[in-house]
Amino acid sequence: MTEIRALVAGNWKMNGLTESAAEARALAEFLTQDAVSGCSVLLCPPFTLLAPFASLLEGTGIGLGGQDCHSNRAGANTGDISAEMLKDLGCEYVIVGHSERRAGHGEDDALVRAKAEAAHEAGLKAIVCIGETQDKRQAGQTLDVIQMQLAGSLPDGSGIGNTLVAYEPVWAIGTGLTPSLEDVGEVHSLIRQDLIARFGTEGAGMNILYGGSVKPSNAGALMAVDNVDGALVGGASLKAHEFNGIIDAYR
Ligand code: PEP
Question: Which residue's CA is the closest to the ligand 1 atom numbered 7?
């Protein structure tokens, strides 16, 4: 069986001002005081904080990632940020296809795939998000949606070194709701099967993160589910002590 190093990633979304550096500093201190052996840790602050965080996090072992990138390398795309720009700032990762981008910016699987390709070209690891809405779950279509998004959003050439999948049920994001552990296990195992079918041993070794209302009180149980190789955390990543409580699942 392929050994996968878990990743706990914090997505700050559109939150944080320069003063928020204090939370990143506090997190680095927690990790120094009580070392983490079982996972890597990543922060994805808004674009405006990437540069200060790049210097702040240097040498702490906490990685840096963007929350989105454009699919083009450069050019007339006012207000957008390229994968190469993220790499240039010190990012190792970029989230693509978050449900808030899919819903709020009309991003479909083809665009998410193009963004993941751009990330790969720039030497970034793409965290590709997929997940069903409440309606689809209630209609019993969760597995179909997941398979379709996975097939459509992952570029050919995805593998251990450049891609992670994040399963984030849309209805669980920021709501305090989570699927049952059985449901998480069912979806993650389906994702694993599809990854192996398409990418072979690379698919067997890619991280599959769970995201959606992960907090210190449920992280241990969620992270223990088969094929859950870490977490993508929104709200609870904003406060260092809470995020650290989630990371505890890997201490
Ligand atoms: C997210 O936005 O990726 C997320 C999982 O949010 P939350 O943890 O707040 O549900």
Answer: 234
For 118-176, what is each residue's pLDDT tens digit? Answer: 999 999 999 999 999 999 999 999 999 999 999 999 999 999 999 999 999 999 999 99
Tell me if residue 168 is catalytic: yes
Active site residue 84: no
What is the per-residue pLDDT across 4-34, written as a single tens digit (0 to 9) for each?
Answer: 999 999 999 999 999 999 999 999 999 999 9
Beta-carbon neighbour count of residue 170 at 10 Å? 22
Return the CATH superfamily for domain 6-250. Aldolase class I (3.20.20.70)
Query: To test ligand 1's pocket by mutation, which of 173, 209, 217, 223 has the most ligand atoms within 8 angstroms of CB?
Result: 173
The helices-and-strands tally (H runs, E runs) of the chain is 11, 8
Mutation choice for ligand 1 from 11, 130, 177, CB with most ligand atoms inside 8 A: 11
What atom in ligand 1 is closest to the CA of residue 95?
3
How does pLDDT run across 61-87, given as a tens digit for each residue?
999 999 999 999 999 999 999 999 999
Q: Is the pTM of this model over 0.70?
A: yes
Of the candidates 70, 84, 98, 188, the residue annotated as catalytic is 98
Distance between CA atoms of 110 and 113, rounded to whole angstroms? 5
Contact in structure between 27 and 248 (CB atoms under 8 Å): no
Q: Taking the domains of the chain in order of start, what are their residue ranges?
A: 6-250
Residue type at 160 in one-letter notation: I
